[in-house]
Sequence to fold (164 residues):
Amino acid sequence: MITIIAAIAQNNALGKNNDLIWHIPADLKRFKERTTGHYILMGRNTFESIGRPLPNRTTVIITRNKNYFKEGCLIAHSLEQALEMAKEEEQVFIIGGAQVYENTIENDRADVLDITLVHQEFEADVFFPEIDLNLWIEVAREDFEADEKNKLAYSFVRYEKIAN
Fold:
């Protein structure tokens, strides 16, 4: 099972200047719960915005740079190579960035979209691809109002690929 996991704004904004635009602790907690113990695949820019391998996960960095190396991480030079490294895994997470999300969706490699939808629009320089509701069906949703810890309203939304 290949799951894309992302937090996106209503206008599909993902981030700006290689960083997240918002801080929603509930989303970070959910991300940790979902991805711990699994392979997480990401582009180099996403890895560098995080700055380190995340604990209790196998980090695969996708980069075109043949000389790139990071201690404690696996390096792949394409999405296909990254997926090959994780082929024995039951659950693999694609965690960003925008190019990796787009490549995964365009090449029909994802089974599930695990989206945190932030109920606001933001100025951004990277965006999540438009979710084509002819290809994806919403199967679960939890809505949350802003509160003291989470300053923005948000929803956890799960989409599954519609069988052809």
Q: What stands out?
A: The chain has four helices and eleven strands. The radius of gyration is 15 Å.
